[in-house]
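Render this sequence as a predicted structure.
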Amino acid sequence: MRSILGAHALALGVSTLALIQPGVAAAQAVAPRDAAASAATPQVSTGASSEQDAEPATQALDDVVVTGSRIARSTFQTPTPITTITEQQLEQKAATNVVDLLRDIPALRPNRNNGSGRNLGLATFNMRALGSTRTLLLIDGQRVLDSSPIANGFDINIIPAPLVARLDIVTAGASSVYGSDAVTGVVNLILADNVEGGKIDAQYNVSTHGDLGQVSASAIYGGKFDDGRGRFVVAASYFDQPDVIYQGAREWGRRGVTFIPNAAYTPTNGEFRQLIVPNARYSQMTAGGVITTPGPLRNIQFGPGGAQSRLQQGSNVGTVWMEGGEGLMPQPSFAPLQVASRQISGFARLSYEVSPSLSARLDVLAANTLARSTGNYNTNNGDITVRRDNAYLPANIRDAMVANNLTTIRVGRYNPEQGRNLNSTENSYYRVSGGLDGQLSETWKWQLGGSYTYARSLILGRNNRDQAKWALALDPVVGPSGQVVCRSTLTSPGNGCVPANIFGIDALTPEVNAYVLGTSRQDSRSQSAIANANVSGNLFDTWAGPVKVALGAEYRRDSVDNRSDPVSDVNGWRQGTFGSYYGKLEVKEGYGEVSIPLARETNFARSLDLDLAGRFVDYSTVGSTGVWKVGLNYAISDSVRLRGTYSRDFRAPRINDLFAQANIRIGTVTDFLTNRTANVNFLIGGNPNLGPETAYTFTGGIVLQPAFIPRLQLSADFYDIDLRDAIITPGQQEVVDRCGRGDPIFCQGVIRDESGAITQVNANSFNAQTLKTRGIDFEASYNLPLFAGRFTARALATYVDRLISSTATGQVDTAGQLQGGFATPKWRGSTTFLYDQGPLNLRVLFNYIGPGTFDNAFGPLDLNRNHYPAFLYTDMSVQYDVTDGLQLYAKVENLTDTDPPLLAESSITVALATLSQYHDLRGRVVGVGARLRF
């Protein structure tokens, strides 16, 4: 174990960094250029530099509210570890947006929402690999509505980047303070409210592969009025990624790599059960159609003008893929690396001091995001049934059917004439919030606040296929007059059906396509109204200082109104969408905190504080529950501090979890009984009988600031999360696999026909899982003067000892697994080196992703490529102040242009060369920009 830890420590590097001084951490302004050195990289908010150095600044500060608590404190030292990112870090990284910087935090994993549907283009994040819905996003300590009515999470990129004064990341349960969803922690955006002057920032990014072409611009301006009693801030941002970038734009994405069953495998012959191989090709689809029915007609394919030939099979032939042969190669252009998107957002803040004891505030946020991605063709993977009296069936095929006593055959077809699905999601977001802050006495304060949010999401699936019309068009017969018509037209003459000829390349006519193709539409609107009241102050004094309390109540009402087109309402499109539904919930909450000093300036403690918090919640949907938290903060000396928390947290099911209408989609599953891959329907949707999730979380850590090494700080924090009754929406393969392990809950969702073949998989949401994870977060930081400048460095690392997902019959540990819903490397880390001298600022970042497996549950013969090495990525940036008001900068991301691991996946339509959420997919990216301050 010692050697392993040493090897990873060497890979991550010895790191150092200046800590945030309390005065800097509290600042919310467009900082001057020379402030950058004091806040160079993300920090754990544990007090700045050494205690003796920080004392004057601490005495000069008023009490402040630190994220993770509602109690005002005179110190930033709390029982809960907090990582802080400042405005200066955003600038030094030359980040395009806020989520770019979150990628450097090992405990967080930004989600890539590059596919289609409700999450398309959203920038969300996932703490501890437990899912984005279990991390709460706050703006100035207040809950916000999800960016899309039917998505999961708030798109952090709609906040203009220059508006962010700092960003606090709490890596422990916080439901007792903030309510539902704060299971793994919270991310709190602290917005600037003390801006003097303005700043304009413009940036252009391009990959060295000749694509990307990102353009971004942002601006902020603020000032005072009425002799400083009033303040205002306005900000705006614009981002444009003009084109979709696909895996086919990279060499590694053009190899046809996919994941297939090994047809030669038996339990005793020593062959691998599954393979990740290049040169994968479709085994049951061609551009002009191929017969897939077993027997003498199998593999007859139809070319230009209906010309017939035999499809030459490769090896490992399955019901979707084969290795080699002359079938069509999966189109790498179907797997997006980056969706096309355009985002515009604006913000305004107005605050006014009515009197020395009363102030008012008002915020307005508006944003619009449009994301586009091109999907697959409307394929048929060997599932078209052709009757013997089909009017377009070649005569020799009909004769062979008669000779072999076949009344039907099955045909697979790629259908390139129908074009590809064109997906777009447009999200609009409007939020108004405000409140009053008052002071009752020198130590007692009160706050009244509220917000109203309206969000709309319009999801369009152009070039989608109406499956009912397609089924009618696929059944052409010769009518009484000798013309070819749909069989349905014989009994319903006015149904408008256009008969389809599927035998041959380009056989489908524009008239057929006009009949069967259309646009799926999902128009979702959500509203949220929140009102809250808080009071806090000193209850009484003790021998160790005042006992502080905070009390409050909150009311929230949320609703979602999802309006879909008539075809969606009956699950009629090939690319599935949710049907229409409406849901609402009301929440009433009361909460309280108390901070009790137990010792101060004694022989055994510099300070010792006990924190207690509790919250009672009442949901109109799932009933009532209570959560709590206990925290201990023990400063043994100026150099050594211990901290720890234990909490009960919860996540209530969201409206979509409860009320989303089930819809049918098409996918593939590998049957555990036959090891054969089949094309099936799978059903996903909400469940009104869901209950809340409950988590028990323990954190314990140590912070070291050795006096004999000034400006050095080390910390290590252990965490253990036990999440029960977790809401899960499994994929179709997961349902089948867990049924194969004997879980009766999942076996209820596997539907078979009389022959035993799987025909449908039901994958609705339900409380059916326990998740347990534990690990350690490390940090080391240091800074020193060097060559008339300042050198700072810092490393963050996270070690995940385990991440166990449990069902009724088994457990799976995904710590060290690199793909899948709960995948996480055992080791992740980032090391930042920064040198600041006069007008020049240089920054180098190393991001480390440890080695791992494709699937931890696989044995030696389950997959031919189950182990993957560690990866190290290098980013660099440079800034130069041309004048006091003008700064130019440049950056390079993924300096060595490192390719991702080939964590392949296969579905009926797309072979993804990698499923990784952790590794860089774009390759080397170069960016340049300029900042103007005035």
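Summary. The mean pLDDT is 87. The chain has one domain: 2-248+338-375+424-462+522-653+690-729+764-933.
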